[in-house]
Design goal:
Chains A, B: This is Acetylornithine deacetylase. Chains A, B: Its cofactor is Zn(2+); Co(2+). The structure is a homodimer. Chain A is built from 10 helices and 20 strands. By secondary structure, chain A is α+β, with helices and mostly antiparallel strands. In chain A, β18 and β19 form a beta hairpin.
């Protein structure tokens, strides 16, 4: 925990800058940084960081050897050369202090029908202590917090004694390749903090995620002899039911997972996008569904993939259309392991102290049934990876919003964490 | 049956023109006359008929008072002002002979994925006695037949003694408003022939068709607490299952229909287009499915519509998402009655004689579980409406093709029918 003097200086700086931080977050939200369209935000962010005096490395996924890494995930329909990453570095005078990566993703998921939003999804509207918009909470609030935590140190006259990399990445919502690319680019540190909107809790473990596309295509039985089960839409329904049963079986196995044994049905299966057919009076000959399925940290990605394939193959037997037209599975995104932040790390201890100082309460832990980027740093590159940040609601839904008071407090706890982890000059 | 001399002269003319007829059909197929995009074909057809000396009336659906007719169907997403109809009239010298309308639709249904076609769908390729393409059989072959049946009379030196209207219409595959518009425009005759691809059979009865769009939209249960039944795609699956059960009940009732009692399950329910969600990892908050359901000629359209609405409403109770988010039903196309061609008409007797003369075999009858335009002429405007024409396969599917030898023979039987029904001068 920082000493009281430092904490007070940081709090004063966070408070003094909070109007600017809120405006910065609203600016971030106004970029519709959907997958494949993140570059304008990243360009703007790179300029903003350069203006603050950071040394900025801006590169695309086409510039790193992703395909050579076993944990890279396939990207379908997105050009790696358009997927821009930013690493803004502030080097310490010496090399003695502990270094830190703070990383946020700036890709957002689609907003859905505009009319289902109370406030326009890319307007950055502030009402009653909340900032609204797609990505406001997941996780542009965390990105604003990391920038203004560093600004608070600067304005408090404190210089971190360790190197700091502020990283904004893409692809967190689809593959994770953005986070991986920063590691392949060479960035390392003694700890990593990812300020996802955890509501001020530390993420003890998260499940993994797989994406796959089921495509059913073939010559249907003629409508004149069709009763049921002979059209591609109905066949996809059949496969979805089979995968629901498969998920139930996986959740039985999940009871043995050390981290998730107490969570009821931690494995979520979600058919998220469906499209098929082109005419109400034609028997549809094709249908596709994009799906997401989870896995516990103790399950192997390859094994769960084979399980999905076996479940789909087994379902063919019960369907007239599929028997003659084998469905195609494309693994078109996430092939993400789960991750467990083992308790007891020095980084977590320091963060808990900073949280206690800022919030006046203990930092609680949570389990997440959704993936985040910490697995790259923590599971594959052996640095303690802390997922901890502000909070709100409506991620991936409507009226997404982040709580501004939580943002303010988390900005302070992050500033205090930086000061304690890296040490500061000027204290 | 025409006398042998006339039949021989017609046969010689049909044969002499058959290469041109095949080329004409290929030209028709090369127009991708999908719904809303039929106008270029109609313009071309109008010019072709004017060049043959017909008096041509070209008008759009915006020029007739469709909305005033109870049997008009809603058009969604299509501009009536772009939906062009053509009536090409050859008036007899006197008004003594029996008049005749021959009508064909030139709209086609979407072709689906191009790679599933052996020959390109809009190329008009001829192979081994078949002409391939979307609409080649359904029903541009019939349109070619009606034009070249009339050409055969002309080249045989025979002038019909009754007025003839050759009509090409749109919207047969979606509403029927094209056929209705010719009646609202004022065209009437003593009989109507629609040369749908019946393979040289007469259609004794056809079922009706309804189109509806089910739209599910609402705030889903959060993915963190979602197991099953809480996403819009799964809810649409639930509604489809309910409508399958409803269809089974309708097919029980269909056993009482005088025309279709011997047909197993004449009521077909088809979910034809589905679309929903926008992200594999977001719980989908909306899903739409475009459906088609049939009815027997003895069922009332309004009653079947209410039945579908009740089935959907009843299904809400069993679904967590739908209980809070009522699905919306849009009746967005067909509201078509079935039709029975009562046996014994003079028109059918004359057609049977022409068929016998051309084919050397009796004209058989069929029952159709798909709708066609005859209902307007026969059921609402009290003229005998004969559905009889060439034949092939692949309607609404892949590798649609029409049989050229059947086209040649049907062109002859249609020419003979015109000669016998209207009478001819120059015999």
């Amino acid at each position: 925990m920082p000493d009281t003097g430092i904490l007070d200086r940081l709090r004063a700086a966070v408070d003094a800058n909070f109007e600017a931080e809120t405006a910065f977050l609203a600016d971030l939200v106004r970029f519709p940084s959907l997958r494949g369209r993140e570059a304008p935000l990243q360009d703007w962010f790179a300029r903003a960081m350069a203006a603050r005096g950071y040394q900025v490395d801006r590169f695309t996924l086409a510039e790193v050897p992703l395909e050579a890494h076993e944990k890279a995930a396939p990207m379908v329909g997105v050009d790696p050369a358009g997927s821009v990453q930013v690493v803004a570095t502030r080097r310490a005078r010496g090399a003695g202090g502990r270094s830190l990566i703070i990383q946020g993703h700036i890709d957002v998921v689609p907003e859905g029908p505009a009319e289902m939003w109370t406030h326009p999804p890319y307007a950055g509207v502030v009402r009653d202590g909340w900032l609204y918009g797609r990505g406001a909470n997941d996780m542009k609030a965390g990105v604003a917090a990391m920038v203004f935590a560093m600004d608070a140190l600067r304005d408090a006259g404190l210089t971190p004694a360790g190197d700091i990399h502020l990283q904004t990445v893409t692809e967190e919502e689809s593959t994770g390749n953005g986070a991986l690319s920063t590691l392949l680019r060479g960035y390392r540190a003694d700890a990593c903090l990812i300020p996802e909107p955890t509501g001020g809790t530390i993420t003890r473990a998260h499940t993994g995620t797989l994406w796959f596309r089921l495509r059913v295509r073939g010559v249907p039985v003629h409508v004149a002899v069709a009763d049921t089960g002979t059209n591609a839409i109905l066949s996809v329904m059949h496969l979805i039911r089979a995968l629901q049963e498969h998920t139930a079986a996986l959740n039985e196995r999940a009871k043995e997972d050390p981290s998730f044994s107490a969570v009821r049905n931690p494995i979520k299966f979600n058919p998220g996008i469906i499209r098929g057919g082109d005419w109400a009076s034609s028997t549809p000959a094709w249908c596709e569904v994009d799906c997401r399925i989870g896995l516990t940290p103790s399950m192997e990605v390859a094994e769960v993939m084979r399980g999905v394939e076996r479940a789909v193959e087994a379902a063919r037997a019960g369907d007239a259309f599929l028997a003659n037209n084998p469905p195609k599975i494309t693994w078109h995104g996430f092939q993400a392991d789960g991750y467990v932040l083992e308790p007891g790390s020095e980084a977590e201890r320091v963060l808990a102290g900073a949280h206690r100082a800022a919030f006046g309460a203990e930092m609680e832990e949570r389990l997440s049934t959704a993936v985040n980027d910490t697995r790259y740093y923590g599971r594959y590159y052996a640095m303690p990876a802390l997922c901890y940040g502000p909070g709100g609601e409506g991620n991936h839904g409507f009226d997404e919003r982040t709580n501004l008071e939580l943002l303010r407090k988390t900005t302070l706890s992050m500033a205090a964490f930086i000061a304690d982890w890296c040490g500061v000059e000027g204290a």
